Amino acid sequence: MHQNAGRMLASKWLKTTALLTDGYVARHIPPTRIYSRGNMKTMLDRFGMVVLKPVRGAGGNGVVKVSRSGRGYRVHAKTSVRHFNTFAALCGHIGRLKGRRAYLIQKGIRLATIAGRPVDYRVKYVKTESGWRIRAMVGRVARKGLFVTNLCRGGMQVSASQGIARSLSPSLIAAKKSHMRNLTRVSTSLLERRFPGIGQLGYDYGIDVGGRIWMLEVNTRPQ
Q1: Phi first, then psi: what are they for 56, rounded to 5°?
Q2: Do 24 and 52 have their domain in common?
Q3: Are residues 102 and 38 in the same domain?
Q4: How far apart are CA 102 and CA 124, in angstroms?
Q5: How many helices (H) and strands (E) does the chain have?
Q6: What 3-state DSSP class applies to 8?
Q7: How many domains does the chain have?
Q8: CB neighbours of residue 132 within 10 Å
Q9: Which of 80, 189, 204, 220 could form an SS bridge with 9, CB 3.0 to 4.6 Å?
Q10: Angstrom distance (rounded) from CA 143 to CA 117
Q11: What is the dihedral of CA 120, 123, 124, 126, to 10 degrees?
Q12: Alpha-carbon distance 43 to 78, whole Å?
């Protein structure tokens, strides 16, 4: 069972659908669909910005941000930014980037920033003999020019308190950390019921410019 649970949980889609069964948690998950041209058109028309990510993958690999730009589209992948005048040209480019891999499309979140660099938060949650425990809660600031915050991509680690204080307000530190801890506890109980045998989880949270918390991803093999 352990092996199957671990293998299944490589899929971001399976984890997302499990978490969406709870109304409280679902309010904090950005609208997410399996990639198709139709789904991308619908979501770009609705949100103006989306993030594409492999269904299986970690470390920010293969993550692409697509946004409407005037009458065309802008694609941000790693440090490169490219513009496309038509939706067909955009889809051709995305097709080459993704290859045969299954992808998800997620509403793009305008994260609060420090000096113009997006910040997100990693909460590492580990199962011990006495129950689940938070091992770490840190902020990650994207490297200049990047939109992914992964430390393996040159992101800078700060304490969660510093991240919240510098991107939003020191007065919000306690409430935002408490909210992330509670979301972590509720989400873990959902995932453990659906996928027995999990023992450690890494939750990635973003806080948008309006102060709303979003659960961006859950990793079963957190770095």
Answers
A1: -120, 125
A2: no
A3: yes
A4: 26
A5: 7, 12
A6: helix
A7: 2
A8: 17
A9: 220
A10: 7
A11: -160
A12: 22
CB 52 within 8 A of CB 91: no
Full DSSP string of 90-156: HHHHHHHHHTT--EEEEE---B-EETTEEEEEEEEEEEETTEEEEEEEEEEEPPTT-S---GGGT-E
Q: Which tokens is 153 given?
A: 């991509």
Structure tokens at 30: 């950005």
Give, for all 223 residues of the chain, the pLDDT tens digit. Answer: 333 333 335 578 888 899 999 999 999 999 999 999 999 999 999 999 999 998 887 656 788 999 998 889 999 887 788 999 999 999 999 999 888 889 999 999 999 999 989 899 999 999 999 999 999 999 999 877 555 545 455 678 999 999 999 999 999 999 999 999 999 999 999 999 988 888 899 999 999 999 999 999 898 876 5
CATH number at residue 18: 3.30.470.20
